[in-house]
Amino acid sequence: MFASPSVYTQLAVLCYGLFGVVMARRYPARMGYAVLPVIAIPLLLALPFSIRNNLDSLVPLYSVELGIYALISATALMRVSNANQKLCSNLLMHGCITLLFSLYLTDNSLTVALSLQVTSLLSSARRLAVSVPDWIVKLAVGVIVLRLTIAPFDINTATNNALGDFWIFVTYPLVLIAFAIGYRFAPAALQKWLVGAQLHVGALLLSTATCLFLTGSVLSWPLRLPTAILLSANWLVLAGVYLWRAQSAGSASSLYKIYGGLLTGIALAFQFGLLIMHNPFLSQGVLPISNTALWLVLLWLVPGALIAVISRYAKAVSLLRRSLLVIASAFSILFINGAIRLCYQKNDIALSLPTGQTELYTYSAVWLIIAALFLVAGYQRRHVIISRVGLTLLLAVICKVFLIDTGQLEGLLRALSFLGLGGSLVALGWLFQRINAAATSSSPTSG
Question: Is the pTM higher than 0.90?
Answer without folding.
Answer: no
